Amino acid sequence: RARSTLSIAIRTYGEGLRLVLSQDVTQRERADAMRRDFVANVSHEIRSPLTVVAGFIETMGSLPLTEVERKRVLMLMGQQTQRMQTLVADLLTLAQLEGSPRPPSDRWVPLSKLLAQSQADATALSAGRHVLTFPSDCPVQVAGNEPELLSALTNIVNNAVRYTPEGGRITVTWRSRDDGSGEVAVTDTGIGVEREHIPRLTERFYRVDGSRSRDTGGTGLGLSIVKHVIQRHGGELEVTSEIGKGSRFALLLPAARVRVPAPRTQAGER
Ligand code: ADP
């Protein structure tokens, strides 16, 4: 596709209108291709668990199963159904993010609240298999939409847990920069990502290792949600990683959306 764009551009060079039109067509073609890819991906992601569930239903209907077998089949069917539910929830989140107005810049959310909720989530997910460290006292407030900010933070912290083998460390830090902007960073000692994959991680359904992602409950949409959320808040997602050593995913927040309220003085204090 890139080659045909170039040849059109050269042939129509000097004819501004035709040049613009040809670019429009190329953009539309690209958007159409992306939509087709997206629909194909969603269909594939739903078809796999659905096929498993359909197979189990047939088995249950045609074979006499012991009580133990019946329980096991039901458990496996439950897992696949859960997978579809998570996928649909993530798809709805993405659709809502695309269609809703930018988050408010005057609604202040305590970062400590977001950190505490994400810590509870990650602790349950890790189930004691990792060492998790969160900032102990964080007086910062962030302006925006609380559920969105929480989902961005939870996604990167939970990914750190999911892509870090047992015994690894996950460390969450807060830092305010000289220009007033802020940074929440999640560092792990996990499997890491090769350099060439990093720019594509926020694409929908892009996974480095599909089976590991699915086995740990991933939909391939998490980082795409994170990128949307952080961009809507005027910030950026920064990723650095080294294969086999670990990764660092940082949410960068602009100065206008970060503040540290003055500590309340006790009565009698000056
Ligand atoms: P998934 O549901 O597959 O985890 P995400 O969009 O959250 O989807 O992440 C996309 C891909 O990025 C993952 O499949 C994984 O390959 C990679 N990834 C994300 N976080 C990490 C991490 N902390 N360490 C290593 N790889 C990661």
Can you characterise this structure?
By secondary structure, the protein is an alpha+beta fold. It is 52% helix and 15% strand. The protein contains 7 helices and 8 strands, in the order αααβαββαββααβββ. It has helices at residues 2-11, 16-62, 67-99, 111-126, 146-162, 210-215, 222-232, and strands at residues 108-110, 131-133, 141-143, 169-176, 182-188, 236-242, 246-253, 258-259. The protein has a 5-stranded mixed sheet, with helices on one face. It has a 3-stranded antiparallel sheet with strand order 1-3-8. The relative contact order is 0.11. The mean pLDDT is 90. Adenosine-5'-diphosphate binds next to helix 5 and helix 7. Adenosine-5'-diphosphate is lined by residues 155, 159-160, 163, 188, 190-193, 201, 206-209, 213, 218-224, 247.
Question: How many distinct beta strands?
Answer: 8
Helix content range: 40-55%
| Cofactors and ligands | adenosine-5'-diphosphate
Give the termini distance in whole angstroms.
Answer: 69 Å
Main β-sheet, in a few words? 5 strands, mixed
Number of helical regions: 7
Strand content: 15-25%
Molecular shape: globular
Identify low-pLDDT runs. Answer: none
Average pLDDT score: 90
Q: For the CA atoms, what is the radius of gyration? A: 23 Å
Keywords: ATP-binding, Cell membrane, Kinase, Membrane, Nucleotide-binding, Phosphate transport, Phosphoprotein, Transferase, Transmembrane, Transmembrane helix, Transport, Two-component regulatory system
Function: Member of the two-component regulatory system PhoR/PhoB involved in the phosphate regulon genes expression. PhoR may function as a membrane-associated protein kinase that phosphorylates PhoB in response to environmental signals.
GO molecular function, one term: ATP binding
Subcellular location: Cell inner membrane
